[in-house]
Specification:
Elements lengths: L12 H17 L14 E6 L5 H12 L3 E6 L7 H15 L3 E6 L4 H7 L6 E7 L5 H15 L14 E5 L6 H12 L3 E5 L15 E3 L2 H4 L5 E4 L15 H8 L3 H4 L7 E3 L12 H4 L6 H21 L15
Parallel strand pairs: 1-2, 1-3, 3-4, 5-6, 5-8, 6-7, 8-9
Helix pairs in contact: 1-5, 1-11, 2-11, 5-6, 5-11
Bound molecules: N-carbamoyl-L-aspartate (NCD).
The site of N-carbamoyl-L-aspartate has 11 residues, from helix 2 and helix 6.
Length: 326
């Protein structure tokens, strides 16, 4: 039975396709005069954000409200208690209030897993980004955007992304978005190529189900979608490249480079974009860039995930692996 969504790697192909199809149904609610479903009426969801967020936090809140849940926003930033203790204390407080689901973003990789498997709470846990580890709802909304754009809204129903070629470019080392996308895209049958400077490629990447390249120009003509990643300065404790100018010259996407993409290919970015660094304003504002569309799709995906975790009677997702099973 479905309990938590901690990692994109926990989803089977059928789980993922069910979430994408359910999100298409949820997207139709946005076209109605009253954009609300009674599905989660009387259920309480807490958004527990230990790290900064704009899109993800607003998107989860919008999704929860459209499903009629009671929403509590908790911003844990600035707490002086050490991470482990504060997480446990906070969890016990939430449990005492009887929450049904916790959406958590945390700077420590593994925090959502700990919350889900510690026995501190009984609620469903949804990972909204943990350290450099995972961001499963981002990968789902990215896959949803690709399926719509590359296959079609109706034609895509029931389909995965078999044979689609996706290139992910930039700071892979610090990116939970990249990790979640590699896992999910592989599960959905897509071929993934990572392009990054050698210093921003994680150790152990050889075991990931993707190809690695250091040359953006040769990767672009062969892909259906290119996903640009932000250089995550806040997670860097050393110099990973000589200068910003040098980085942009080799790994940034500008108009000339975009012209090398096949005609149908899209440009994606999870946001926040650093214009002039990994992407130029010309590309960010072009019709081929789906950054804003990805945000809108995020609400539908999060509605689908919360509905399937809390509302659906059928076991829609695989049970996230527990300590005992590992
Ligand atoms: C990403 C994140 O926080 O992991 N953003 C997001 O959720 N849309 C990527 C980033 O911060 O660069």
């Amino acid at each position: 039975m479905l309990r938590h969504l901690i990692s994109a790697a926990d989803l089977t192909r059928d789980d993922a396709v069910l979430i994408l199809d359910t999100a298409e149904e949820m997207a139709r609610v946005a076209d109605r005069p009253i954009k609300k479903l009674p599905t989660l009426r009387g259920r309480t969801i807490v958004n527990l954000f230990f790290e900064d967020s704009t899109r993800t936090r607003i998107s989860f809140e919008a999704a929860e409200k459209r499903l009629s849940a009671d929403v509590i926003n908790f911003s844990a930033k600035g707490s002086s208690v050490s991470k482990g203790e504060s997480l446990k204390d906070t969890a016990q407080t939430l449990e005492a209030m009887g929450v049904d689901a916790v959406v958590i973003r945390h700077g420590a990789s593994g925090a959502p897993y700990r919350l889900a498997n510690s026995g501190w709470i009984d609620a469903a846990v949804v990972n909204a980004g943990d350290g450099t580890h995972q961001h499963p709802t981002q990968a789902l909304l990215d896959a949803f955007t690709m399926r719509r754009r590359l296959i079609g809204r109706d034609a895509g129903l029931g389909q995965d992304l078999s044979g689609k070629r996706i290139t992910i470019v930039g700071d892979v080392l610090h990116s939970r978005v990249a990790r979640s996308n590699v896992d999910l895209l592989h599960t959905l049958g897509a071929e993934v190529t990572l392009v990054a400077p050698p210093t921003l490629v994680p150790v152990g990447v050889d075991s990931w189900p993707c190809a690695i390249s250091y040359d953006l120009d040769s990767a672009l003509p062969k892909c259906d979608a290119v996903m640009m990643l932000r250089v995550q300065r806040e997670r860097m404790n050393a110099a990973f490249f000589p200068t910003e100018r040098e980085y942009s010259r080799r790994y940034g996407l500008d108009g000339d480079r975009m012209a090398k993409l096949p005609e149908h290919a899209i440009v994606m970015h999870p946001g926040p974009m650093v214009r002039g660094m990994e992407i130029t304003a010309e590309v960010a504002d072009s019709d081929r860039c789906t950054a804003v569309e990805q945000v809108a799709n995020g609400v539908s995906i999060r509605m689908a995930v919360l509905y399937l975790l809390l509302g659906g009677n059928e076991p829609a997702l695989t049970h996230a692996r527990t300590n005992e099973e590992k």
